[in-house]
Each structure stands twice: as structure tokens, then as C-alpha cells.
């Protein structure tokens, strides 16, 4: 499974020091063969953190994170975008995805 996670700054201001964090902790460690993340991202346990830098209003940044389970099943992930800039619509900063692996 190699989903691409995208972060789009809907504005109105630039997002200073944007960070994408993907939580894969819904999958037990014993069922996880490996996690691969792009250069610059950090993998710690079942979490991947990728600094995105400053993201201008209307711009999108994407990172591909490869999760290789050792068993079939459902992988629940949560992606969260943060920045040093206050977000007037903070409710749209988190997305949850369930992926079935056969």
C-alpha cells in the first residue's frame, strides 16, 4: 500500500512551517512488515512525520508513504496537517482512511 497523502492550504494566509503527520498505529506492530517514507520524513513507531515547509495559500504538497503489512486486513490511518499559522477552519486539518489489504 503506497498512498499519496496531500495537504492543500485553503488559505487565506500562507501556512508557515507546515507538517504532515500520518498515524498508522491502528495496525498492530506485529502485523506491520515495514513503513517507508520519503527523504526528510521521520518514521517513529506507527507514525510518519514530514515537514512540508511554508505552504502558500492555494498550494498543495504531497508525500507518498509505503506501508507493507505482513497480513491481510484493514489498515486505519489518520493524516493530520499542522503549521505555525492559526487555521480558521481547523476541522479540515485531519482525514481518516481505512484501506483493505488482501
Would you kindly provide a written description of the structure presented here, covering whatever features stand out?
The protein is mainly beta and 102 residues long. It has a single domain, classed as Immunoglobulin-like. 0% of the residues lie in helices and 57% in strands. The protein contains no helices and nine strands. The model has no long low-confidence stretch (mean pLDDT 85). β4 and β5 (47-55) form a beta hairpin.
List keywords for this structure.
single chain; 102 residues; mainly beta; Immunoglobulin-like; 9 strands
H/E series, N to C?
EEEEEEEEE
The count of helical stretches stands at 0
For the biggest sheet, the summary is:
5 strands, antiparallel
Portion in beta strands: over 45%
- Sequence of strands across the biggest β-sheet: 4-5-2-8-9
Count of individual beta strands: 9
As for the CATH topology, it is: Immunoglobulin-like
| Computed structural class | mainly beta
Helix content: under 10%
| Sequence stretches where pLDDT stays below 50 over 5 or more residues | none
Report how far the terminal alpha carbons are from each other.
Answer: 10 Å
Nearest-integer average pLDDT: 85
| Number of domain units | 1
- The CATH class turns out to be Mainly Beta
As a whole number of angstroms, the C-alpha radius of gyration is 14 Å
Shape: elongated
